[in-house]
Design goal:
Helix content: 10-25%
Structural class: mainly beta
Radius of gyration: 22 Å
Distance between the termini: 23 Å
Amino acid sequence: MTRQGTARRLLRRGGMAVLVATLLAGVVDHAATMANASAQPVGARLNLITPDTGVRLPVPPQAQPDLTPARAAGADAAQIASQLPRTSAPAPGAPRRRATGRSTPTRVTTRSVAGQPPGPLTPLRSGPTAFPATAAQRPHLALVSRPGVVVAQPQLGGPAAHPYAQPATTGPADPAIACGDVAGLIAAITSANASAGPTTIRLAEDCTYDLTAPIGATGDGLPPVTSAIIVEGHGAAIRRDPGAPPFRILEVQAGGTLTLRHLAVRGGRGYAGGGILNGGTLTLSDSRVSENAAWFGGGIASVTTSAVLTLDRSRVNDNTASYPFGALGGGIFTAGPLTLLHSWVKDNTASCSGSCTDAFGGGIFSGGTLTTTGSHVSDNTASCSGSCLALGGGMVVAGTAAILGTWVSDNTASCSGSCLAAGGGIEVGGTVVLATSRVTENAASCSGTGCRAAGGGVLADGQLISLKSEIEKNTVRGSTALGGGGIFLWDYTATLSTTKVKRNHPDNCAPAGSISGCV
């Protein structure tokens, strides 16, 4: 039997489409009731996934990436690599800065680039992480985080400052909320939503704001954000009180823009985005989203292709996505653009058991355009039991990704029963460029008669391009270990340029001879 035939037999193609359609059905119903929904029909914005065609998470036209000019000009991998930002991730043992502690400011510079008009969206075929049916249809890598802009190498340095110092962005009417004054915080958000301009809400330093009950039509702990709001946390935390009934912390609706600075969001519960549900534009700066739980997007869920999520020196950790029929994105689920700048996605879990189908993306499930720079995706887990699939312990990329100067380490995809566990570090279902990055000490493992495991570091079920990177010390374990301790090429192509694939177990790449330059 051919390798592709084996893939079709082992990966029950179409299973993920049904799973995601089931999970997002509640989001569609919920979004239809939003008082401040955008003029675009909710169904048009959220009809991303259908059981007959598989997961439909295309990059929106305005954000489609473009590497075509370089390739058309005959650029080789080294020339493409020269276009990438020169950056590297700090070693795992290096000192870590607290998300809300004193730190040296990071200045991110940008430069304009000339881009060609994006091509049309392409049809997708069904599958666990459905992607374009032919290589020619596959969307190209995003080197840009938004149209016409390349994120340049961050410049570290600058004068020492108070950890909560920010540029003056407020006016005399911007409210300051006393410590623990939840009613005042609710009133401030409600007032800001009615304001014509951006509003900055200032919280008390190092204070905890306990939410004790859901409010309003959304059933969240705080009012939905529908305007431009900045919350200066000053080291504060907003959390669901441990004795309160389950509810999400907050939501950003279509047209809303929310920036959180030096703030922790924790303890939320919801079917999508236990901490934050994002349908607009959400930016976290020196902030943390932790200890939340949901069916998908345990910490944060961006559920439309137009929803933009950015993490800058922030952390998403210890969140859980869990559902009896499957789970997606233990830390983050996103259908739109996601950018990580010197941030951590760590210790998150996507899990299911019993009458379980699938668990995808312990740390991140990305269906849009993912760009990571100098970040860490580590110690995340995708696990399931029964007749199921566990894919992408660190991340599942169903769209496009540029993983730059990033460590993907110590993640696990595991399963028990008649199951498949694959892609301990990364499951590539779309197009991924891995540049000056490390994929190390990840594992794909299974237990039980007839279980299968593959791709300890990377499961390449799409297009993988690795430039000046290292894929090492990854492991595949199980009663039927299909191999590919470093990379298992399930379908499509994998291109390695000045990339070291070494010291993986039981082998570096599989099937044997499938990836040029890997032995």
